[in-house]
Amino acid sequence: MSSLLSRKVLPFPKFLRLCALQLLFLCCFACAAFAGKASAYRPKPNSFTLWQLPSQTDTIGNSYVLMTPKGRLIVMDGGYASEAPYLKEFIRERGNVVEAWFLTHPHSDHIGAINEILKDPQGMRINAVYHSRFPENMIGRKDALTRALYARLDVMDPAETKVVSFEKTGGTLEIDTIKFKILGVTNPEITANVYNNSSMIIRVWDAYKSVVFLADAGEECGDKVLSLHKKDLDCDYLQVSHHGQAGCSESFYKSVKFRFCLWPTPTWVWDPKEARLTTLDTRRWMDEIGIKRHYVSGRDGLVVIK
């Protein structure tokens, strides 16, 4: 009898079971290999979460919220007064307690929301406010908003809300696993583009990622910080200054190492129709640097980075 005829033939159901087991083994092996490659891109459970909040009316503004792994909230600026209801609800849904609120400079698209919230907190607790206070001679004669905000900060009970004004760069603090370093403060000696050039510039980082917030820094402010804190400006995520136009210089951006851009920018500034807006220059610089990922608040809506 030929060897083919003498070979034992498995019953059909048993043959199917054997094939199924082999297929399952191959699938498990493939999944394990894929998981090994993909693990680097999974959110880090011990890192902070960052939200870039969109404007509710597609206007300029600066509004970021961070959350520590333990659930503590940190706010950067907050946008116009008209953004206050959205921001209040965003914070309320996450516990209604702000561990630290940073105010980069007293322009209405940065301090308007907190000024409204402080009028009627509705149960929101703010444990600390950090800013770099403008001296009286830097505040415009018609700038009632800045004076109103400072008046509210001045009467806060230190037992309930700590108010800290940074007068020098290099100051640091730590909240849970997140570190903060103040790279830029008020610059009374810069008389051009006064408010923007006194933006507080802040580096935020932990073991997994880093962010630098440039606020509305102009060329002079950016160049000063670059000369003092160049290494601290290198980061994963860089918030482009002044909504991406008429902010820091081309040489500034090309001197800093970063991977991604945060744009607190409405659609009409991201894709400008007015010649006075220089957004396309900034976008070109980013292309030349090789930045491939841009998070644009007006285009992308609510952005979350974990």
Q: Helix and strand succession? A: HHEEEHEHEEHEEEEEHEHEHHEHE
Q: Which whole number gives the mean pLDDT?
A: 90
Structural class: alpha/beta
Q: Figure out the total of helices.
A: 10
Low-confidence segments, ≥5 residues, pLDDT <50? 1-12, 23-43
Helix proportion: 25-40%
Notes on the protein architecture:
With 306 residues, the chain is of the alpha/beta class. It has 10 helices and 15 strands. The strands form 2 sheets. Strands 1, 2, 3, 4, 5, 6, 7 and 15 form an 8-stranded mixed β-sheet that branches. Helix 3 (84-92) packs across helix 4 (108-119) and helix 4 (108-119) crosses helix 5. The longest helix has 27 residues, at 12-38. The termini are far apart. 38% of the residues are buried. Mean pLDDT is 90; it is low at 1-12 and 23-43.
Question: What's the short version?
Answer:
With 306 residues, the protein is of the alpha/beta class. Helix content is 34%, strand content 21%. It has helices at 3-6, 12-38, 84-92, 108-119, 144-154, 219-233, 250-255, 267-270, 279-289, 297-300; strands spanning 49-52, 63-67, 73-77, 97-102, 125-126, 128-131, 162-165, 172-175, 178-184, 201-205, 210-213, 237-239, 260-263, 293-296, 303-305.
Describe the secondary-structure layout.
Elements: H1 3-6, H2 12-38, E1 49-52, E2 63-67, E3 73-77, H3 84-92, E4 97-102, H4 108-119, E5 125-126, E6 128-131, H5 144-154, E7 162-165, E8 172-175, E9 178-184, E10 201-205, E11 210-213, H6 219-233, E12 237-239, H7 250-255, E13 260-263, H8 267-270, H9 279-289, E14 293-296, H10 297-300, E15 303-305
Parallel strand pairs: 3-4, 4-5, 4-6, 6-7, 11-12, 12-13, 13-14
Antiparallel strand pairs: 1-2, 1-15, 2-3, 8-9, 9-10, 10-11
